[in-house]
Amino acid sequence: MCNTGQMKVFEALKWASSYLKEHGREEHAGELLLRHALGATRSEMLMKLREDMSDNSFKLFEKNITLHGEGIPIQYLIGYEEFYGRTFEVNEEVLIPRPETEELVYNMLERINVLYGNETVDMIDIGTGSGAIAITMKLENPALQVTATDLFEESLQVAKKNAKRNGAEPIDFVHGDLFEPFFETGRKFDVILSNPPYIPDKDAAEMSEVVVGHEPHRALFAGIDGLDIYKRICAQLPFVLRDKGIIGFEVGMGQSEAVSKLLLNTFPAAKVDVVYDINKKDRMVFAEVGF
Questions:
Q1: What angle do CA 100, 244, 124 make, to 5 degrees?
Q2: Which of 64, 102, 132, 259 has the fewest other C-beta atoms within 10 Å?
C-alpha cells in the first residue's frame, strides 16, 4: 500500500505504474484506473496532473491498482468495456468483449448488406454473454430482427441491461442451451452468429491469471481441442437455418480449417470463407448457404 498524505495526480500515476510493473501487469492500466477514480476523460486527467487527489479518489485508485496487481481484470474493476464505440457493462458473469470480435460484427454486417439488401432478416446470436454482438448488430442495422440466447440467466441479465443502456430494443433474449428453445416451435433464422468458447482445456495452464482466474471458464474453454461447441452448433444448424442463410463464427488461431470442415460436412454446397483479423490471425469463418 502507498502512504501518501496528500498526493498529486501525477505522483499517484507514477506510483501505480511502478506497482503494476513490479506485479507483472501492463503499466497503462494505471491511467485507466486513475481516470475511473477521478471520473475524468483522458484530457481532463492530463489537466489535473498537478492537482491534489482527494482522499476518497486516492483510496479507490489504490484499492483498484492493488486488485489489478492481484489479477482482477481492469474491466471488472471499472465495470465496463468499450465495444464498437459503445459502453457495455461487464462483470464476472460475462466474457469481456475483445476488439477482434468487432471484426466479426463488421464482416457479418457487410455480408448481410450484400446478400440481403432491404429484405427482412432474422438473426440470432448464440451464447450472447454481455450482449455485445447482438446489441451492436441491432444498432448498426436496426432493420434486423435480433434474438440472443445464453445458457446462463446471470449472463442474460447483463445483456438485457446493456440493451437498455444502449437503446437497442427490441431484442428477444432467450434462456436456453444453443438452439434447443426453438426446436419445438420450429423457428428458423437467416443469420446465425456466435463467438462460442473455443480454447482447448489444456491451454489454461499457459494463460494469464487475469483471464483464467476471473473470466468465466464456461465462456472460455471447450474440451480437448476447443471445438466442442462448434460441433454441437453444427449438428443443430440444419434444423434452425433457413434454406438461404449465413453463419458466422469467431474461432481461435489455427482452428479455421477444422471449423470450415464442420460447416462443409453440414452444408456440402456452402461457400465457406476464412477471414483473418487485423493481427493476421485466422479469426473468423463464414458460411453462405443457398445463395
A1: 45
A2: 102
Q: What's the pLDDT at 220?
A: 67
Question: 129 in helix, strand or coil?
Answer: coil
Q: 114 and 250 share a domain?
A: yes
The answer to whether residues 245 and 283 belong to one domain is yes
Domain containing 22: what range? 9-70
Cell 431484442 belongs to residue: 171
Q: What is the pLDDT of residues 14-45, one digit of tens each?
A: 999 999 999 988 888 899 999 999 999 999 99
Tell me how far CA of residue 221 lies from CA of 118, 162, 194, 200, 224, in angstroms: 38, 24, 15, 6, 9
Give the contacts of 226 (CB within 8 A, at least 6 positions apart).
Answer: 197, 198, 199, 200, 201, 203, 252, 255
Residues 163 and 271 grouped into a single domain: yes
pTM over 0.85: yes
Claim to verify: residue 100 and residue 15 sit in the same structural domain: no
pLDDT at residue 2 is higher than 60: no
Render pLDDT for 101-123 as a digit per residue (tens, 0 to 9). Answer: 999 999 999 999 999 988 999 99
Q: Are residues 153 and 54 in the same domain?
A: no
pLDDT at 204 exceeding the cut of 80: no
The answer to whether 165 and 197 have CB atoms below 8 angstroms apart is no
Task: Identify the three-state secondary structure at position 49.
Answer: coil
